[in-house]
Amino acid sequence: MQYQGEKINWGILGCGNIARKFSEALAYLPEAHIQAVGSRNLKKAQEFGQSYQVNKSYGSYEDLVRDPDIEIIYVATPHNFHLQHSLLCLENGKAVLCEKPITVNAFQSRQLVQAAKEHQLFLMEALWMRFLPAMAKLREWLQEAIIGEIYLVKADFCIRRDLDPNSRLFNLQLAGGALLDVGIYPNSLAQMVFEKKPTSIYSTVKLGDTGVDEFSSYVLNYGQGEVALLTGGLRIQTTHHAEIFGTKGSILIPDFWKAQQATLRLEGQDPQTVDFPFECNGYEYEAREVMNCLRKGQTESLMMSLGESINIMQLMDEIRDQWGLKYPEDK
């Protein structure tokens, strides 16, 4: 299916903070139009719709996906609902951009990808970091082998949150914990840099009182001595820096998960820092990629392929297996 209209009509499924950020980006893009928003609470949907000049507000997800004018739906509900809500969209003929993680495990990811293929509809995981201009520059430097052969990737993403058993982050029933919420970012970065699956994984974890992982570290080995040293956490604050080290130099990306800067350091040369300020709030880049794919008739993005999403979920499954941490959805 190709989308030839002047604007792509979006539906927003869920009205949380991430949906608001994404809707701000859509409102910025002239090629995007927010046709409708859906929530399980009509009043909440109406309040959301008024904020972003949305045409229609629905009090159920079922009503949203049946809107004939919607072409693609952004799924922004908690992790454990991603499969259910994405399938609901696909089964009603809607392309899907699903917030990360695309599902809670690789089994679900394969199920969702299969459904998208059967319906011949576009599907992509909304891991916004992958589409930022700073990450495009990183990929360019890596393709040019400007820092030589890569030996080491270091990245941390830990945030400090007060323990709240009622919060989604600390609720095991909602697939809470650090790994799926923030740990996915360093793991995804390592996969992007090395472009292959690790041959071995060593991880450690601190499980909290609610059963979720509050802090974890991951050592990924890639078979030829290359290694990624990564952390994710909910109870301590870290720098959020990423560094990639090669035989000719290194690349530093501050706040890599929302990167707006990258510094290239080559031996014998002054550091070269490049700034990449957002046009809007950073979510415009993944939205633009989705709409470009739709207009080209593509059913997935080459920048964030479905196979890559499955590989990252499989990696996180293996990490959780080492801890014995299971969600209700795990088989």
Biggest pleated-sheet summary: 8 strands, mixed
Radius of gyration (CA) equals 20 Å
SSE class: alpha/beta
CATH topology of the largest domain: Dihydrodipicolinate Reductase, domain 2
Domain count? 2
CATH level-two architecture of the largest domain = 2-Layer Sandwich
Q: Describe the strand arrangement of the main beta sheet, using strand numbers.
A: 8-9-10-7-11-12-13-14
For the residues shown, what is the average pLDDT?
96
Q: Please tally the helical runs, counting DSSP H or I stretches of 4 or more residues.
A: 9
Q: Count every beta strand, where a strand is a DSSP E run of 2 or more residues.
A: 14
Give the termini distance in whole angstroms: 34 Å
CATH superfamily of the largest domain: Dihydrodipicolinate Reductase, domain 2
Shape: globular
Q: What is the level 1 CATH name of the largest domain?
A: Alpha Beta
**Could you list the spans in which at least 5 consecutive residues all have pLDDT below 50?**
none
Order of helices and strands: EHEHEHEHEHEHEHEEEEEEEHH
